Amino acid sequence: MLRLRAFRHTNDKIVKIQLHPTHPWLVTADDSDHVSVWNWEHRQVIYELKAGGVDERRLVGSKLEKLAEGETDLKGKPTEAIRGGSVKQVTFYDDDVRYWQHWRNRSAAAEAPSAANQHSPAFNSPVPSTRGRHFLVVCCENKAIFLDLVTMRGRDVPKQELDNRSLLCMEFLSRSATGDSPLVAFGGSDGVIRVLSMITWKLVRRYTGGHKGSVTCLMTFMASSGEAFLVSGASDGLLILWSADHIHDSHELVPKLSLKAHDGGVVAVELSRVMGSAPQLITIGADKTLAIWDTISFKELRRIKPVPKLACHSVASWCHPRAPNLDILTCVKDSHIWAIEHPTYSALTRPLCELSSLVPPQVLAPNKKLRVYCMVAHPLQPHLVATGTNIGVILSEFDARALPAVAALPTPPDSKEHAAVYIVERELKLLNFQLSNTANPSLGSTGTISETGRSRTEAEQLHVKQTKKHISTPAPHDSYSFLSISSSGKYVAIVWPDIPSFAVYKASDWSVVDSGTGKLFAWDTCRDRYALVETSLPPRIPLIKGGSSKKAKEAAAAAAQAAAAAASAASAATVQVRILLDDGTSHVLTRSIEGRSEPVIGLHGGALLGVAYRTSRRISPMAATSISTVQSMPMSGFGNSGVMSSFAAADDPFSSNKPIAEAAPQNFQLYSWETYQPVSGLFAQPEWTAWDQTVEYCAFAYHQYIVISSLRPQYRYLGDVAIPFATGGVWHRRQLFVATPTTIECVFVDAGVASIDLETKKKKEEMKAREAQSRAFAEHGELALIAVDNPQVSTSERISLRPPMLQVVRLASFQHAPSIPPFITLPKQSKVDGEDTVLKEMEERKVNEVAVAGGGVSVAVTRFPSEQKRPIGPLIVVGVRDGVLWLIDRYMCAHALSLSHPGIRCRCLAAYGDAVSAVKWATRLSREHHDDLAQFMLGMGYATEALHLPGISKRLEFDLAMQSNDLKRALQCLLTMSNSRDVGQEKNAADITEILSLTVVKQENLVDAVQGIAKFAKEFLDLIDAADATGQSDIAREVLKRLAAAGSVKGALQGQVLRGLALRLANHGELTRLSGLINNLIVAGHGREAAFSAAVLGDNALMEKAWQDTGMLAEAVLHAHAHGRPTLKNLVQAWNKMLQKELEHTPSVKTDAAAAFLASLEDPKFTSLADAAKKPPIEILPPGMASLSAPPITIKKKPPASATSSQSPSTTAQSPSTAAQNPPTSVQSPPTAVQSSPIPAQSPSTEAQSTTPIPVQSESTATQSTSDSQTTNTETDKPPMSEAPPPPPPPPLPPADQLDGTPVAEPVSNSVSSPQATTEAHTPSEVAS
Questions:
Q1: What pTM does this model have?
Q2: What are the Polar residues biased-composition ranges (predicted)?
């Protein structure tokens, strides 16, 4: 519960401290006047500055800057060279600080019943004034330093500009009539307050005539009348009120009211927001007292001495749901943060926490005591409190997950007014809230455009009308509680975990239906039943009358304690389930859930009951707490009379300084509400769980992420979203709205379609069919089973699987518009920043972000709305009602977040299941965001509806049409994308004039179209397959026409696509187109593809022609040989001729010496054909074919076991020259000849030169049979030997004379399936013999 969030060790005392509202920045000043800005989230120092003396770095930097800007004459001493003196105040100033200061003042004023505006604090934010700059402002005695943390440029204002008086404190004024905002007021040592403009850097006015002593503190606030005041406290003990509404722009202002506040001077002043009444002022003084003032009558309401004998130095108003009665925090120079309970009546002071227990022990020296010198509560996150001490900065976190004690009741169907029940002190109250704008955003008014061009629905914040009513039933306790509501909304459960006690109320008449002791409680989300763990209160220790010995007393006490421990342990392990019947009585369904014996530390309600058990070892701080349902956090402070802190409890895992990274134990189990049996294995305990009302989805929140699962047709993990520190969430169909301490997020969820879902669906359909059949059989007997099958056209629905979708959209955060450094976005300014018209226009444009579409409908330019402002503090998410997201904060104030931006509204409608309205709303979203929205709708399963979005791109339209099986539309998209509408259309008019007038334009169009078809070839093939699957052959034919037309253009389509096309053409019986395609491929030189297509067509002659005409003679020979075709001899002759021709080319000459030397060692190579003529001509034949020149000779077979041949009959052919040097090479598998003579390898294949053996495949396409050939190499330079597939009959061996003289070589034939197409070019490659 209480833990150290961040600690930074320093050697000096930290005397001034301030937190930035939206960035994780903390600025401190120590007693030696060093100022540093620290990022407490990443634990890094961002900036350091010596403010007391002269900071050399800044001095040098400013001089360099001036030189760079060309100012050489340095008139006088630069302001950076002035000694600052002691630091009196440090703070941040930017648009965020300004906005939230204004917000705080307005909302505090709006609490009063007589307040000027009775709506929730929705107001126009102040105009952004710092233009994206983040100033660090340091108020020193001699000067004020304004440092821009974005550009690192500074501005020092010496006290000479401010009447030469020491500056002791400062405050920023937000309102001013003239255009010189922002203004900063400085309290001077002479009792005068001087106001400086941050644009002209000149003194604009003085507040005089009030204080006699020096001004020590300043603060602005707003009265419930709506008037802005500046309040100042000074060393003369006076508290003075000044008007801060500068409507009358005079230079001297006089005080409105003066009060004597403290003897010895006022130390600090703070504004306190009081629920249901006007704001109050809290002052602390040197007289050790704290006073509370009413801001209407300015009477003193209360004065107390928080800590006797010590004066307070810091005070902060506080409102934390975990400690509902503590309203003020204060610090004195000891090691505690003190809290004041019920400040206006009982006003008890108790230590909130002991800081020395939080810091690492090694930091404190043994004899050193921790002392606090300054303290500040985070303005927007009340659970963070920063303290400056003598050992460093301590940022403590007080239970970030405690939520306000409020629960929303279901709205009656016809009512516009919503209700929530909440607890304040010991009273139950009703909060009624509704939208007060007359235009209902959910009806979608067209958002008429106001004069400024801003659409009205976006600009005005939603006004909320709310009233609070008492309920006559009092609540029994006033400690921390939380409320939960049953699934029907008829019952409200309230649990006070610190007592521990619970009560269940009936919402109709607020009578108690059930109550007891216990702090673990969980509702079932489907019926009005609940689980709880009852704790037995420890029995009173009996008082033993005097007379018995001391030992007897001790023994009795020990026995009583043991009995109490045993009783509580027994009760802690039993989870009871009770049900509420219609008559409002509760009945116990089961006394205990079987399962485990460990004590239960958490219950989580939902469609299944989650039970968390205490594991044996200490649980890490994160895993231990769970706040969605009740938590096991005894707080000792409320029950005990001792001075123990109310936040750090003995049994509290948060009080230990354990690293967060410790692995969470597996201690959480889900049980069925019906059978009370476990339905899951153990997993880590979530911090809270949220179940969708229709029991389709559930979310389990952990420290750094939220796990989302779908529950139907069975449990399936969908993914997790990285939303850290989430405090609560509510489902609204497929939207999960999540609150974190700084943001409100919306997660859109869809389970997608997984194969398991289809299986379940199929099983269900089968079961239905079986049931129908058995019913029919029961009614009509055997005859019912006779059925006549019609010839059905199979239009099988293609259900494509869809991955689950999770999309997170941030709806609200604390940040103002994202800060953009001014030098990036703004045009160059003149020295004095006058209000520039260009600037104004840019600001306007940024704010409005609205364009006008046709018909005067305003269209949102942005994809998502700019983030709205998240209300301050912990929030309960009520959910979506009236088309807005409702939240309730810790002041029991309802807030509405608008969901009317089309980017959000379309998504919400689609997630809700109303895709048609989502498409209608999309007309208000500018067209460039339609693709994004269509992708989202596709993820949600609305591909068909997404096709109606007007602005989607063609590419996405094609995907959507394919998804939604609208193949006609997909075809139209493809034709448009590939410009191929007119391609492949047969013209009937064969008029000669038309043929002659084929103009250049047509050819250009054709080129475009063919390129387009080639680009989208894969999509075309997918479309054919989809059309085939759903029996839409006409669409498939249209696509085939286009593809065939493109295929006939040389080099347009890849080989793979051409093959696919051939198969599909054959499949569709488009044989004429296929034969046309083959002829075109032959002309284009695609031998392989043409042969493949011919094979598909089953035309052997055409196949052979394809190879022959594209110069692939080797394949043609093999094919002819395998099929015993009559053309074999001619083909072999042609092939050999071609090989002989290729030898004539001169070989490439090797130049390097090493290669030349190696070549000289080898056999002499042929240098010209003249040498070759001495030997018989080279012939390359398919295995077993007789030589073309020599007469046929037969020889006897060699014995199979000879040394040179292996087991299978094979021949080893070696030229006599190589036989001497090389050992005989044995080539395994069917008879082939070895290539060992200088023949160039066919085609551009480098395999012949490679030195490593490569397995080469050759394929006879007709028989489609392949055999892996093994190639062996004898020497590094020898060519690989490859084999062709064996012909069906075993052929005779080649004649003898060929064996002695001419080696019979066989080329490396490229396999048909290789990707590169072989063309006419044959490169001669030298092959060593």
A1: 0.76
A2: 442-452, 1222-1257, 1308-1329
